[in-house]
Amino acid sequence: xxxxxxxxxxxxxxxxxxxxxxxxxxxxxxxxxxxxxxxxxxxxxxxxxxxxxxxxxxxxxxxxxxxxxxxxxxxxxxxxxxxxxxxxxxxxxxxxxxxxxxxxxxxxxxxxxxxxxxxxxxxxxxxxxxxxxxxxxxxxxxxxxxxxxxxxxxxxxxxxxxxxxxxxxxxxxxxxxxxxxxxxxxxxxxxxxxxxxxxxxxxxxxxxxxxxxxxxxxxxxxxxxxxxxxxxxxxxxxxxxx
Length: 242
Hints:
About 70% of the residues lie in helices and about 0% in strands. By secondary structure, it is mostly helical. The chain has a single domain, classed as Transmembrane di-heme cytochromes, Chain C (Fumarate Reductase Cytochrome B subunit).
């Protein structure tokens, strides 16, 4: 089946371009601005809402990503599991439940980011773009799970084959060009997310052993804020101490 130039652009050219941007952007940021590598924590500015948003978000998204990982890497296992209708329903319901959990947590975090005056003041354009891209991605995933049945079969079948063809440099857009528009947008936006990682606070994930450390508590960070408008005066401080 022949594909249109639009499908080749979205499902062949764009994934390769997004990965190239992510790699070059990460290398440039690490070599040119290494001190921005770690995330600027806003936890000390507001903690309560952060807790209620961060916990469901991290647990939900990590379980969902784990399911995506296995479906893409070992799709034959997922297809074999789904051969039993009961197991298929269980997998779909678990995926939907954790997807909703991640969405609820992300909405809380977005509300905190956009409404808390102190957090809003230290937020950057990259923070806003990142949250919007994540919201779009999670909403598309939840919509797919609710309105389009058996997404795990698509993921383990068409999407996995398409991804492996990309990796092996044998791109074939026909494998995903016939999927529902919502699923296609989910795939396209996933590579938008990959492309912007080097320009956001999420780049600090690369400095960790793995994102699963967040399941057992975030590592401590030392954060210093300097006010350049009020430079330190050692002599005055010395006299005050005496």
